[in-house]
Structure formats: structure tokens, C-alpha cells
Amino acid sequence: MPTPVANKNRAGLMGPEHVKQLDGKADQTALDAAATTAANATAAVKADLATVITANRTAIVGDKLVANTASGAIVVTLPVTPAAGTPVRVYRDGANTVTIARNGSTIEGAAEDLVLDEDKRGVRMTYLFGTWKAFPEVLA
């Protein structure tokens, strides 16, 4: 294979003589595997990104919400018909409370909303066994 020459064209890309043609199914399988790995890595990064909210919001599956309560209390409403294993993470950042509204389901078996009343604290909610389970976490 010839050595690529920098800035061979205006876009700085190599010409067609430098592009390897696929040799059949094995190369396509390798490309598919690489694409899957890249997609999984992207999903993992996105899964850990948080959304900062400053107003009431209904959570969706997989949300990681940081409620900035500097201007007032915030209510985060859980999804209405969660499937088993549905995750939602909510954190409080500020002086006011965050209420996690159960939206018809129970939280830890109780028909009561959950209130985050300490700054830099949060909870990982997972819907299991017909109720939302709450796992306390600290906002780093």
C-alpha cells in the first residue's frame, strides 16, 4: 500500500488508492463488531451524563437529573407505567427540597412521595417487584 501523502486533496483526505476494499464477509463482520463496540461505548458515556433541571419535570426511563434548587423547590414525577428494571436517578443541588412524586406507583411499598431534604444528596430509583426501590447516593 502506498504511503499516504498529507494534504493530498483540499480536505486533507487520502485518495481512493489508499482505501482498502472489503475482502468479503470476514471484513464486514469485523466492521460490524467495531461499529457495535463504538455504539456501546457511546451509550455508556451518554448513560452517565446528567441533565440539570431548574423546574418541575416528569422523568423518563434512564434519566439522571440534577435538580438545581437555588430558586425554589422542584418536583420530579416518576414515569407512570414503569417496566421492571426501569432506572431513574435524581439529585438535589441547592437549598430547597426535591420531591419525587410516585405517579400512582409506590416507593419502597409506601403510597408516599419521597423528599430529598439534604443538599448534594440523591437517589437511584429502580422499579422492581411492583414498587420503586430507592438507593441513596451522594452527588460528587
**Count of discrete domains:** 2
What is the correct CATH architecture of the largest domain?
Answer: Sandwich
- Helix proportion of residues, in percent? 10-25%
H-E string = HEEEEEEEEE
Strand content: 25-35%
Could you name the CATH topology of the largest domain? Jelly Rolls
Give the helix tally.
1
- List unreliable stretches of 5+ residues: 1-16
Query: Sheet with the most strands?
Result: 5 strands, mixed
- Shape annotation: globular
CATH C-level of the largest domain: Mainly Beta
Using DSSP, what is the number of strands?
9
Please give the order of strands in the largest beta sheet: 1-3-5-8-9
Tell me what you see in this structure.
- The protein is α/β, with parallel strands linked by helices and 140 residues long.
- The chain folds into two domains: 20-46; 50-138, Jelly Rolls.
- Helix content is 16%, strand content 31%.
- The protein is built from one helix and nine strands.
- The chain has one helix at residues 25-47, and strands at residues 51-53, 57-58, 64-68, 74-77, 87-93, 98-101, 114-116, 121-128, 131-138.
- The strands form two sheets. Strands 1-3-5-8-9 form a five-stranded mixed sheet, with no helix packed on it. A four-stranded mixed sheet has the order 2-4-6-7, with no helix packed on it.
- The chain is globular.
Search tags:
1 helix, single chain, alpha/beta, Jelly Rolls, globular, 16% helix, 140 residues, 4-stranded mixed beta sheet, disordered N terminus, 5-stranded mixed beta sheet
